[in-house]
# Entry
Amino acid sequence: MKTLINLLLLFIIFLLSITKGAVPLNLLHLSPIQKEILISVRIPRVILSAEVGSALVIAGTLFQYVLQNPLADSFTTGASSASALGAVIAIALGLTQLLLPFALAFSLMSLILVYKLASFKGKLSPVTVLLAGIIISTFSSAAISLIKFLSQDSVTSIVFWLMGGFQNASFTKDLILFVILIIVFLRLYKIALAIDILSFDEQTAISSGVNVYFLRKELLFHGALLTAVCVAFSGIIGFVGLIIPHILRLLKHYQARSLFVQGIISGASFMMLADLLSRILLKGGEELPVGVLTSTIGGIFFMYLLVQKKSSLYEW
# Structure
């Protein structure tokens, strides 16, 4: 029943998103120009926003499982910052057509580096992964600031892209992200039981027959892959992978399969709604960067979680 309600909400938000904006559209009476706006601009943008929302929620859920940390997100492992660094380098070099390969390459390199820094005798500790991710994020942010300083010609494009948005959406990007998202989702759905066992202590998981160390590396890879593609296509959009999983758990979705299914639907609805608000909040056809909107909402939510879970985090 909850799934049907979420799907109905998703459909309603989708209809609102494709009809509302700087140019309101009446689907029953469209002029040739309005048809072009609908097919070439509005639909690919709305689809991309939905897919990015779903992907970021799945990535955030995976990082929370791996790190056993309720405040974990794609930024915690350094994957998001490293992907952004790769994309910024591509922009600065004028290689915007290679934005995705650069983001993926840097994301995977950061993942390997995090594993090297955090592993001890082939074992990963959630605490050391967290610290290694912070190190990668710090260096990536510093490198991005340096590139902005040195690349005066590209600084406007870099800053605008870092704020996050879906202005450059296309059906090609939609298809690429859709294929990756489906492949990752099917794999995660298949190993959902092992992921649930991972949420217990390490010895319990090992005694249950779960290869904990391999599973953690696989989940980190999936999370980094989804994060890199999202960053390459839409810039940095933060806190989505933190907000939605927590709301789903408050709604008593505890098992991995339920979190993944509901996360895809809820993440898509949330991001489409955020993109819609970014297009209609300002007058005169101006757009508010989606990343600014989600960061504002996420910052407030993050503060709430920190206050609520402060004692348990301290004990952990």
